[in-house]
Amino acid sequence: MELVIDAHNISKVYNPDTIPVYAVNNVHLHVQRGEFTALVGPSGSGKTTLLNLIGGLDAPTEGRIVINGTDITAMRTNELIDFRLRNIGFVFQSFNLIPVLTAKENVEFIMLLQGIEKKEREERVRSLLQEVGLADKIDTMPSQLSGGQQQRVAVARALASKPQFILADEPTANLDSKSASNLLDIMAMLNKEENMTFLFSTHDSRVIERARRVITLVDGRISSDTAAVSTVH
Amino acid sequence: MNLYVQRQDLNALLATPEAAHEVAVLLENDELLPTVQQKLKAILPDLKIENWREISPESDLIASYTGQSAMIIVAIIVIALAFGIVNTMLMAVLERTREIGMLMALGMRKERLVTMIVAETCMLTLIGVPVGLLLAWATVEWLSKKGIDFSVFANDMMSEFGFSAILYPELPWNSVLQVVIIVICAALLASIYPAMKTVRLKPVEAIKQ
Ligand SMILES: Nc1ncnc2c1ncn2[C@@H]1O[C@H](COP(=O)(O)OP(=O)(O)O)[C@@H](O)[C@H]1O
Ligand SMILES: [Mg+2]
């Protein structure tokens, strides 16, 4: 087994000086390569905060985060930006595609930032959009795509940088059930065929069913973890 | 009251054949005044050579007052213009805070983002300034042919001081250059400041907005 995410007793406290809010409270979490894991819990339980900490978008108040053997906790801003570019794929709840770029350009620009050659970029964009079932939408603007299609472009974009893992914060929250199930099919396929690690938050029971491991957060703490349960057995 | 008579008649009455006691010289351009006056003085040392400012100090006063108030009006317009540009560029950057946060999250370095925003501003300015200049030039060109007729408002007043009631404007290119420089500086400053402010946000904060 290969440990890709090692969150070591991390906490995130908001407003430490006034009314402290423990959004994430002493969480200890290991994720191995190839996992397909759901982070569940009621609204306000700290799912977004935890994913932001793991993704290096926010710094923990306490604890250490080690990604693929590299401690990101003490990294400086630009160092962390470069690290995210090379190691972490993001899918956001509200798609967050660049409105003035086509599907192809949205996927391509991340490889442009990585300094990948044009020929390789073009080939990879083509195959990625093919994988998410949007080969025919390659030159379409995001505004001309449905929510489900936009989110599939976002998944292709997350994959483009060849990250260690993909973090997705409620990726299906803005999708109808058919698009949601279609997105999950694609994510599961990428997980199976390319051994891509996924950590996604959700509170949709149909999405939770698809996960192989389910971590439940309550008030910023892990209240149950099916993987932990199965290893205890 | 003005009375016009033939010069021969007047000469006959005054018994001064072929004489004139005053000759008016009309110049193409007011800027030629000092040199022409100098030259005439050199050629005709016995004659009194006066320019219109010396003959009619009250017209001179009005002309210089008008010049000063025009400067004040131009200054006010330029300040309003600068604020307009600052506001536009500020909005152009601030309304994209989310997008900028997303780019930071995905891995675009801060200096690269600032460069991108400033480059966009430069492009906007490089398109906007020539278009604006062209429109201004076309308008002034048209008016300089057609003239702006003020006779309805101030026919008597204008002609009393020797001004035509119809004005033919022209574009003063050196002030145009000043305005262009002000516009470019205002646009750059107005984009650099919010760009620096935005990239100083954490990506999560920027995305939330
Ligand atoms: N920027 C912030 N400032 C203060 N409190 C925050 C901030 N962000 C999140 N919180 C609080 O942290 C807790 C966890 O929020 P969040 O991680 O968004 O939960 P979830 O994604 O599970 O709904 C909530 O109580 C929320 O109000
Ligand atoms: Mg959330």
Would you write up a description of this structure?
The complex is a heterodimer of chains A (233) and B (209). The longest helix of chain A has 18 residues. Chain A starts with a strand and ends with a helix. In chain A, the strands form 2 sheets. Chain A has a 6-stranded mixed beta sheet with strand order 6-7-8-3-9-10, with helices on both faces. Chain A has a 4-stranded antiparallel beta sheet with strand order 2-1-4-5, covered by helices on one side. Chain A is of the alpha/beta class and 233 residues long. The mean pLDDT of chain A is 94. In chain A, strand 4 and strand 5 form a beta hairpin. Chain A is built from 8 helices and 10 strands. Chain A has one domain: 3-Layer(aba) Sandwich (Rossmann fold), CATH 3.40.50. Helices cover 37% and strands 27% of the residues of chain A. Chain B is an all-alpha fold and 209 residues long. Chain B folds into 2 domains: 55 residues, no CATH class; 153 residues, no CATH class. Chain B is 73% helix and 2% strand. Chain B is built from 9 helices and 2 strands; from the N terminus they run H-H-H-H-H-H-E-H-E-H-H. Chain B has a two-stranded antiparallel sheet with strand order 1-2. Chain B starts with 6 loop residues before the first helix and ends with a helix. The model of chain B has no long low-confidence stretch (mean pLDDT 85). The structure holds adenosine-5'-diphosphate and magnesium ion.
